[in-house]
From TrEMBL:
Pathway: Purine metabolism; XMP biosynthesis via de novo pathway; XMP from IMP: step 1/1. GO terms for cellular component: cytoplasm. The lineage of its organism: Eukaryota, Viridiplantae, Chlorophyta, core chlorophytes, Trebouxiophyceae. It is found in: Cytoplasm. Homotetramer. Catalyzes the conversion of inosine 5'-phosphate (IMP) to xanthosine 5'-phosphate (XMP), the first committed and rate-limiting step in the de novo synthesis of guanine nucleotides, and therefore plays an important role in the regulation of cell growth. The active site is at residues 316, 412. It comes from Elliptochloris bilobata. Mycophenolic acid (MPA) is a non-competitive inhibitor that prevents formation of the closed enzyme conformation by binding to the same site as the amobile flap. In contrast, mizoribine monophosphate (MZP) is a competitive inhibitor that induces the closed conformation. MPA is a potent inhibitor of mammalian IMPDHs but a poor inhibitor of the bacterial enzymes. MZP is a more potent inhibitor of bacterial IMPDH. K(+) binds at residues 311, 313, 316, 479. InterPro entries: Aldolase_TIM, CBS_dom_sf, IMP_DH, IMP_DH/GMP_Rdtase_CS, IMP_DH_GMPRt. IMP binds at residues 314, 349-351, 372-373, 396-400, 424. This is Inosine-5'-monophosphate dehydrogenase. Its cofactor is K(+). One of its GO terms (biological process) is GMP biosynthetic process.
Length: 497
């Protein structure tokens, strides 16, 4: 009944996720017993098989922190200077879950108007006042709404005149201790100081409760020292090697991704060799690839993981512009077949819109999925929200769009700087999707249920069933796809995971 994947994908048609369907297996375990832990690379293990894409509208420090906190990982984009990328990477490395990401701190000489401006930008909770005006300065007070509500002269009033100087602070408290203290004090903000009274970080009622409410996902992704894991994208030029040296030298890089739409090139082979020689312990992801032959070349050159996909992303036009690529289900299956045989995990990159796509990618042999559009438009994505036709949106753009290339990402597409620029992606907007901290847990639970339906307790079991042919698959006709979607309803509300 049904086909082995090798039969289905060996018939001359390229298939994407929506074109295929998996036949169910036998269930003898609960969905919460499904173990999603996985390998991102040969050496890095994650509790959740999900990473965010190195795109300039998807992953900067805030997204990378959220992803690692949720058991996945974020890859910082490289459409920014080395200094900027380094500062994002260091922010991830310094972050302690349960505390404010970027505490808002002002000096005692700042005006109430400056406080208002910060609040207008959406900084939550109270503002700490230190003698230096930043983290690391001696804590002298806290300012909250009640301190300034009735101040008439906002330009002329200084924070030192209105701040609450009698601050309850804690010394080097853990997230749990901070929550307990906030509960006791009934205050909104708890500054954490060191023995010298210098501000180290800030806990708020919201961040502490968030950490407690966070559904159990397994452990956050951390290094041997307990700091969050972070990845970064680089290109393959000499200055990209300097980037890796600097990030690695600062202890702020666990895994690097060689970012290219077509990774099977002499540039990546050379870069792999040079990076492996200079940083033997650094995990290097190569790609993107879509065929077994490409996978074999990069795997044999020492890649620690392969990123799979060409033209499958929601903002991609590579297949239309360059006539190359592959349906994403076929690409994930064919690349993973070769790569997994060589002990190299694969990352299914692009085209993920639902939990069903994640299940399909993992069951076709990928060890993790990489998402762009799914995470664009979330609170953690870079950029500010704005309104288009009454809908709250954020910008999302392909790294091969003219807009992104204007900022420097053209090397990803081998764009010839001497010639005309050819776009291989679009720029646009996506809806406000709330916080990944709220949505990713639901997405992962839906994936567990999908694997349970397949009869796979964990990802290795799903991969083994695929390789042996025990997992049966079929292609879906267009009417089967229509049938698999909601139909014949007058109206309905769909919640997508
Ligand atoms: P999703 O579907 O998650 O895809 O939005 C994200 C992935 O798309 C790739 N990417 C591009 N591909 N032109 C392309 O052909 C582009 O401008 C572009 N920008 C990103 C990339 O692999 C990303 O992870």
């Amino acid at each position: 009944d049904g086909y082995a994947a090798a039969q289905l994908f060996g018939q001359g048609t390229t298939y994407t996720y929506d074109d295929v369907i998996f036949l169910p297996g036998h269930i003898d375990f609960a969905a919460h017993d499904v173990d999603l832990s996985t390998h991102l690379t040969k050496k890095i293990q994650l509790a959740a098989p999900i990473v965010s894409s190195p795109m300039d509208t998807v992953t900067e420090a805030e997204m990378a922190i959220a992803m690692a906190t949720l058991g996945g990982l974020g890859f910082l984009h490289n459409n920014m200077t080395l200094g900027e990328q380094l500062s994002h990477a260091q922010r991830v490395k310094r972050h302690v879950p349960g505390f404010v990401l970027a505490p808002v701190v002002l000096g005692p000489q700042a005006t109430v108007a400056e406080y208002d401006a910060l609040r207008a930008q959406g900084s939550a909770g109270g503002v700490c006042v230190t003698d230096s005006g930043g983290v690391g300065g001696r804590l002298v007070g806290v300012v909250a709404g009640r301190d300034v509500d009735f101040v008439a002269d906002r330009q002329g009033t200084l924070l030192r005149e209105v701040m609450t100087a009698d601050v309850e602070a804690a010394q080097e408290a853990s997230a749990e201790e901070a929550l307990a203290q906030l509960q006791r004090s009934k205050r909104k903000v708890l500054p954490i100081v060191n023995a010298a009274g210098e501000l180290v970080r800030v806990a708020t009622r919201e961040t502490s409760l968030d950490e407690r409410r966070r559904p159990r996902l397994g452990k956050p992704s951390t290094d041997a020292g307990g700091r969050l894991l972070v990845g970064a994208a680089v290109g393959t030029r000499d200055d990209d090697r300097e980037r890796v040296d600097a990030l690695r030298g600062a202890g702020a890089l666990d895994v690097v991704i060689l970012d290219s739409s077509q990774g099977d090139s002499v540039y990546q082979l050379q870069m792999l060799a040079l990076l492996k020689r200079a940083h033997p312990d650094l995990e290097v992801v190569a790609g993107n690839v879509v065929t077994g032959a490409q996978a074999q070349r990069l795997a044999e050159a020492g890649a620690d993981a392969l990123r799979v996909g060409m033209g499958s992303g929601s903002i991609c036009t590579t297949q239309e512009v360059c006539a190359v690529g592959r349906g994403q289900a076929a690409a994930v299956f064919q690349v993973s077949r070769v790569a997994n045989g060589l002990g190299v995990p694969t990352i299914a990159d692009g085209g993920i819109q639902t939990s069903g796509h994640v299940v399909k990618a993992l069951a076709l042999g990928a060890s993790t999925v990489m998402c762009g559009s799914l995470f664009a438009g979330t609170a953690e994505a870079p950029g500010k929200y704005f309104e288009v036709d009454g809908v709250r949106v954020k910008a999302y753009r392909g790294m091969g769009s003219l807009e992104a290339m204007a900022k420097g990402s053209e090397t990803r597409y081998y764009s010839d700087t001497q010639a005309l620029k050819i776009a291989q992606g679009v720029a646009g907007t996506v809806r406000d999707k709330g916080s990944v901290r709220r949505t990713v847990p639901y997405l992962l639970q839906a994936v567990r249920q999908g694997l349970q339906d397949l009869g796979a307790r964990d990802l290795p079991a799903a991969r083994a069933a695929l390789a042996s042919g025990a997992q049966r698959v079929e292609a879906r006709s267009s009417s089967a796809q229509a049938e698999g979607n909601v139909h014949d309803m007058h109206s309905f509300k769909k919640v997508r995971w």
